[in-house]
Amino acid sequence: QVQLVESGGGLVQPGGSLRLSCAASGSIVSINAMAWYRQAPGKQREFVAHSPSGGSANYAGSVKGRFTLSLESGKNTVYLQMNSLKPEDTAVYYCKANVNAFSSGRYYNANDYWGQGTQVTVSS
């Protein structure tokens, strides 16, 4: 019904920047919110940032002031601008969207969908 595709990950030196993108497509009626999570090796997936459509973003304390989430509603796309990257930011970053969808004659309200993840490695 709904697909999320992330891009923009890669290898960057400490102090560098990356911009992640996540585009949602499929049987979308509207998007309620989009968010970023990450999972480092051997750790649980953790919250990074979240924004409701038309609202203000909120951030995990570990990234506040360094990361910026922006939502381009017209393109069903969310971005994560990551500055001043640290080695501890190394993880697979996942996009999540809370979506209202319509498919095969049925409404699917406020379901969560996840992308496949994109690797971010911060290392010298």
Helix content percent band? under 10%
What is the end-to-end distance?
40 Å
> Rounded to an integer, what's the Rg over CA atoms?
15 Å
Into which percentage range does the β-strand content fall?
over 45%
Task: Tell me, rounded to a whole number, the average pLDDT.
Answer: 95
Q: Helices and strands, in N-to-C order?
A: EEEEEEEEEEE
Give me the secondary-structure category. Answer: mainly beta
Number of strands: 11
List keywords for this structure.
elongated, seven-stranded mixed β-sheet, single chain, mainly beta, 124 residues
Topology:
Elements: E1 2-7, E2 10-12, E3 18-26, E4 28-39, E5 46-52, E6 58-59, E7 67-72, E8 77-82, E9 91-103, E10 106-114, E11 118-122
Parallel strand pairs: 2-11
Antiparallel strand pairs: 1-3, 3-8, 4-5, 4-9, 5-6, 7-8, 9-10, 9-11
Write up what this structure looks like.
- With 124 residues, the protein is mainly beta.
- It is built from no helices and 11 strands.
- Strands 2, 4, 5, 6, 9, 10 and 11 form a 7-stranded mixed beta sheet that branches. Strands 1-3-8-7 form a 4-stranded antiparallel beta sheet, with no helix packed on it.
- Strand 4 (28-39) and strand 5 (46-52) form a beta hairpin.
- The chain is elongated, with a radius of gyration of 15 Å.
- The mean pLDDT is 95.
